[in-house]
Amino acid sequence: MADQSESEISIDQTLESPSHEEKLVIDRCKDLEIHDLGVNISSKGLVSWRDDSPDHPRNWTHARKSYDIVVVAMLEFFTEHHRRELKISHKMKNWIARLTHPRQPSAADQARTESGMSHLKALVAFSLMYQLGQALGGLIVPPCSETFGRRMPYIISGATFALCCLLIGIVPSMAMVYVGRFVSGFASAVPSVVLAGSVEDLFNARSRVWLVLLWNSLATAGLVVGPVFGVYVSLGLGWYVVILRILHKIRLTMLRRRWIYYISAIVTAALTVATLFIRESRPSLILASKVAALRKQFDSDLSFDNHDAVADHSELLNIILIRPASLLVTEPLVILVTTLSAISWAIIYLFTEALTGIYRTIGFSRTSASLPFLAIGLGVLLSIFPRFQDMKVARRRKLRGEPLEPEDKLSGFILAVVALAIGLWWFAWTIPPLVTSIPWIVPTIGLVFVGFAVNEMAYTLSSYLADSYTVYAASAFAALAFVRAIISGLMPLIAYAMYENMSANLATTIIASVATLFGVAPYILLKYSKNLRRISRFTKYSLEVHERTRIEAD
To answer: For residue 282, which of 387, 160, 173, 144 has the smallest C-alpha distance?
Structure first.
């Protein structure tokens, strides 16, 4: 009986154990599953991307990439445009009031009058609070997107921005303005900074030439269109505003100002719905989901090179707060680029804050005085031409079998610095009160130079950081965005004091002089940037991670 029992157990075990042929079939099925997932598995159980994997973001179809980038870029454009649409013409009370007596106030003036605020308090409420929120958001959110993904921050930020705009329009309270502008500024930091990471996820260095240009151009265009939009929506809504006035029993000026926020809420809500259909583009997160599926299906202890893994709350805090803050004070390359960007941004904001007031003295109406901002937008288009030189350098590198260097994209920075000085000097000495007989088109030509300089400096510095920090570009941009937002919030206060107490010629001449001294910036950047990249520990780490996880050469 014992022999029989042992025989039965032996037979059962034989039946349960697959034959050699069955093992081959099982292994082949596993190989097919792995191939379908677009990954490779090493002999040590390490999972990595297959170069031709259709699921890797850089191998997505052109239609898929285009949809995702366009949706996020439009969200970036509209939040940047909203940042400027309620800015105030800062020199109204004195030297504008002496020349003209407009019947209709601007959007920000309406809000100021409605709430009984001074110019300075209005600047703090509508401008500084927004920029402080954007500074904090720009510091915290980008590292989160590198750990938890890009898609969800876009959705949450869009919904938050739309809700804040709606509440500011509905709730008749200055406390709501302060809170709403701060939170909407925080939310606006997501598309304005995280987009850099999305571009790096989806495109190699050669393709990024045009994508980073598009991104910066839309951001600059938002700053240009904002003042025009704010004035024209505030003063020209038409018959349906009158109907809503009757329905809501509130003053027409109040309703007009609030419709700026209603429109912002409607547009950003629509864009938020569009972000629901974008795909997650962080390669490490997509690979993590594939590894989890393989572990579950084949009961195997597989692993992958997950540079975004967070072990505990302490490490999460380090990634979200410590890393971007430490980059700002310990990373030589980030310090240099951030300093250059801060100076250029300060020059631009000091100048443009007084632009509407200057054109009022030339004889423009309150609405048409915002139109010269469009000349700055025309200058933005000129940034296309230096890109052909960038592409020429890229082709030359490719023929030699050499990788593109971040410094290869800095040639436009030299042109931008020169154009900024020319544009500001031109403008400073062709405007009232010193010059009153020259046609308005003459000073406006100077704005075209300024527009080119604004966009070109933003492009070259952004492109340089993206190529230097590759997979961690968003963290590097967090430091840059933080400083830029603080500068953007403070400069209107300084510009208000400058143009209130000086003539427009003298104030703009001072800014032009600073821009001229800024001409040494390209020399400093080109001379020291390569050495700074070599000694930077975080740059080396970013490059190492990029080399281990990339699927194509840059």
So the answer is: 144
The enclosing H or E element of 40 equals strand 39-41
Burial 107-121 (b: 16+ CB within 10 A, else e): bbbbbbebeebebee
Among 126, 518, 543, CA closest to 345: 518
Each residue's pLDDT tens digit, 184-224: 999 998 888 888 889 889 988 778 878 888 878 877 777 77
Residue 327 vs residues 146, 363, 469, 499: alpha-carbon distances, Å = 15, 48, 11, 35
Please check the confidence at residue 297 and state whether its pLDDT lies above 90: no
Give the pair of three-digit tokens for residue 74: 């439009």
Q: What is the dihedral of CA 111, 115, 118, 124, to 10 degrees?
A: -70
**Cβ distance 486 to 131 under 8 Å?**
yes
Rounded to 10 deg, the angle between the 473-501 and 332-352 helix axes is: 30
More confident residue, 275 or 112: 275
Strand order in the sheet with 39-41: 39-41, 46-49, 303-304
What is the rounded CA–CA span in Å between residue 95 and residue 500? 8
Q: In sequence order, what are the residues at sequence separation of 6 or more whose Cβ sits closer than 8 angstroms to the Cβ of residue 15?
A: none
User: What SS3 state is found at 41?
Assistant: strand
**Separation in Å, CA 264 to CA 86, 122, 153, 362:** 12, 20, 19, 31
Q: With DSSP H G I counted as helix, E B as strand and the rest as coil, what are the percentages for the chain, rounded to 5?
A: 80, 0, 20
Rounded Cα gap, residues 481 and 338, in angstroms: 9
Side-chain-side CA neighbours of residue 4 (13 Å): 1
Residue with more model confidence, 539 or 151: 151
As a whole number of Å, the end-to-end CA separation of the chain is: 72
Gap between the Cα atoms of 485 and 478, Å rounded: 10
Look up tokens 């230097």; give the residue.
468
Q: How far is CA 508 from the centre of its chain?
A: 28
Which residues touch 5 (CB under 8 Å, ≥6 apart)? none
Query: Do strands 303-304 and 46-49 pair parallel, antiparallel, or not at all (unpaired)?
Result: parallel
8 A C-beta contact, residue 151 and residue 275: yes
CA 206 and chain centroid, separation:
20
Residue 174 CA to residue 129 CA, distance in Å, equals 12
Handedness of CA 511, 377, 231, 76 (dihedral sign): negative
Query: pLDDT per residue over 355-406, tens digit each?
Result: 888 998 888 987 888 899 899 989 999 999 999 888 888 888 888 888 888 8
How many CA atoms are closer than 13 Å to the CA of 106, on its beta-carbon side? 27
Strands 39-41 and 46-49: antiparallel
Global pTM? 0.76
Handedness of CA 85, 90, 96, 102 (dihedral sign): positive
Tell me the two tokens of residue 320: 């979200």
